[in-house]
Design goal:
Number of strands: 9
Helix content: under 10%
Distance between the termini: 26 Å
Structural class: mainly beta
Strand content: over 45%
Largest sheet: 9 strands, antiparallel
Radius of gyration: 16 Å
Length: about 170
């Protein structure tokens, strides 16, 4: 659902760029059992896997379970679970037009060669502020398949390892 009068459901409000996917596209690509494995690479070289799994999907949203995985695929720590709406997930990709650039890019990832739309965005109005980068694969509506965020210690890199469609 858009806040704009022109009916473009990719645009969530004034001053925002179109999102790569609508809430409906995210819903249609997600079903109970969809599991996303994410590799997190910290600036110090530490690597770990996080898992997101959807359940109880309906027209408005789903239950999203998240946990850190052990090396053997088990659960490391607590499983965090909560209800999310498809529109809330779309809002994660709503970037301010005045601080964001958009480009097409092809990535080679564990999931294969993916055609992506890349958003580079910076916080605040400072032109030399650190830039966060998000790559959304056209073939996988939902979260970015790659994300890079600068920290004082260096770049944190996140890559989606796989999307298991278990519906």
């Amino acid at each position: 659902m858009s806040d704009r009068d022109d009916g473009d459901s990719h645009v969530l409000g004034p001053g925002l760029l179109p999102t790569p996917f609508t809430a409906d596209e995210i819903r249609d690509a997600t079903g109970t059992g969809k599991t996303i494995r994410i590799l997190i690479e910290e600036p110090d070289g530490t690597r770990f896997e996080r898992v997101n799994r959807f359940s109880d999907c309906d027209a408005e949203g789903a239950t999203l379970e998240r946990w850190r995985a052990t090396l053997d695929g088990g659960v490391d720590g607590q499983v965090v679970s909560g209800r999310v709406t498809w529109l809330e997930l779309q809002w994660h990709a709503a970037f301010p037009a005045e601080r964001t650039t958009v480009a097409e890019e092809t990535l080679e990832l564990p999931m294969g060669r993916l055609e992506c739309v890349r958003y580079d965005t910076r916080e605040g109005d400072v032109t030399d502020a650190p830039v966060e980068s998000f790559w959304f694969a056209r073939a996988f509506p939902g979260m970015p398949v790659r994300f890079e965020s600068p920290t004082p210690a260096g770049i944190v890199r996140t890559t989606v390892l796989s999307v298991d469609l278990m519906r």
